[in-house]
Amino acid sequence: MTQYWEPGTEYKSGDVVEYEGNTYKIIQPHRSQSDWAPPITPALWGRVPSHNNNQHQYGQQNQPQQTYQPPSYQQPNQGQNQGYPTDQKVEPSHEEKKTNWFDLDDKRKKQFEVGGALAAGAALLGGGFALYKHHEKSEEQKKAQTWALSNWVNEARERTDQFNRNGPAGPATWVLTQGKNIPPGAIEVGKENTWTLYICRSFVEGGVQLGKASPAFQKGAVIGYKHEEIHLDTYEVLLGNMNGLRWVSAHGRLNVASLGYRPVEGGREDDGSPLYIAKALHKGVVHPGKASEKLDGAYIPYDGDEKNIKEYQILCYN
Questions:
Q1: Which of 159, 176, 287, 298 is the most exposed place for a label (fewest CB within 10 A)?
Q2: What is residue 18's three-state secondary structure?
Q3: What is the pTM of this model?
Q4: Reduced to 3 states, what is the DSSP secondary structure of residue 74?
Q5: Residue 182 phi, psi (nearest 5)
Q6: Contact between 276 and 260 (Cβ < 8 Å)
Q7: Is beta strand 10-11 parallel, antiparallel or unpaired with respect to 245-251?
C-alpha cells in the first residue's frame, strides 16, 4: 500500500508516496523536510503518470523487449518555491544556466540565492548526491558547484523527457536514470564476470565525466576522476543504435581529425574541453571510459583508480 508523504521521514530507493492526490516515486534517497514536498522538489521525487502510451526504445536485437519509463519530473508549482514568496522567485535565463557562477554579477547571484534558483542543486546534496571533495571547498565554491550541478540535472531531465515524448532523434541518446536501473537500448561495451558494462556519465567537479554503469555496482555508476573511482546513483546512460555508430581504433593521445569519422562527444572537463567515449581492454575485459586530445590515451575506472590504456577505440557516427 502506498504511504502518504510526511516530513521528517527517511525515504530510500524504491519508495513510492502519495501527495495531494498524485503518486511520486523516489529519485534521490533523503530525509524529508516540511519545505521539500514532492511537487516542489523534482530533484528528489518524480511524479508517476497515470498512463503513458508513448514509450520509445532503440530496436537493438540484443535488448529485451521491454519499455523504459524514464524518471517523470514536474516543475515546481508557480505558487510555491521552497518557502519563498512567489514574487521573490527568480528564474535564470537560458544563457545564465550556461554561465559559470563566478561570472555572474553579485546582484544576480544574490537574486538566485534568495529566489530559490539553487534549490534543485541543494536538494540533490540533501538527498545524498556526492560532489567530489565538496567539504573541502569554500562557501562560494560550494555555491558554484551547486549551481552547475542544478543546471546539469535540468538539462539531463529535458533530454530524457524529450526522448520519452518523441523517441530517439539520432543513433545516440543520453537518458537520465537513478540507482541500478539500466534502460533498454543501452549500449553494451563488455562483460565483467557475469555482469554487463554500459556507458554512463555524470556531473563531477564542474564537468561531465564518463564512466561505466551496471546493476552489479554499489550505486549503479562508477565515474573515473583524478585517479579515483566515484560511485554515483544519479547519472545518464547512453542508448544507441549501432547501425548508425561504429568503434574506431586509436592510439595514445587522441587525434580527432585522423579518426575518419565524427566521434560522439560524451562529456567535458571543467574547462570545457570535450571528452569522447572510449572502450579499452584491461585484464581480459573491455571497459568503457574516456579519451580526449589532452589525455595520453584512454582512461577507464577500475579497482578504485583510473587505468591509462594506450590502445583503445572511440565511438563514432557512421
A1: 159
A2: strand
A3: 0.69
A4: coil
A5: -95, 120
A6: no
A7: unpaired
Q: Could you tell me if 314 and 259 are in contact, meaning their C-beta atoms sit under 8 angstroms apart?
A: yes
DSSP symbol at 253: B
For residue range 248-295, list pLDDT tens digits in order.
999 999 999 999 999 999 999 988 899 999 999 999 999 999 999 999
In angstroms, the CA 9 to CA 31 distance is: 5
Q: Cell 534568495 sits at which residue?
A: 114
Residue 283's nearest CA partner among 259, 261, 309, 313 is 309
Nearest to 38 by CA among 24, 50, 28: 24
Supply 126's cell numbers: 540533501
How crowded is residue 63: how many other Cβ atoms within 10 Å of its Cβ?
16
- pLDDT 10s digits, 150-184: 888 888 988 999 998 888 889 999 999 988 999 99
Structural domain boundaries of the chain?
Answer: 3-166, 172-317
Give CA 282 to chain center in angstroms: 25
In sequence order, what are the residues at sequence separation of 6 or more whose Cβ sits closer than 8 angstroms to the Cβ of residue 283?
A: none
State the Cα–Cα distance between residues 265 and 128, nearest whole angstrom: 28
129-136 contacts: CB < 8 A, separation 24 or more? 129/28, 129/232, 129/233, 129/234, 130/230, 130/231, 130/232, 131/204, 131/205, 132/204, 132/205, 132/225, 132/226, 132/230
Give the bridge partners for 274, in sequence order: 268
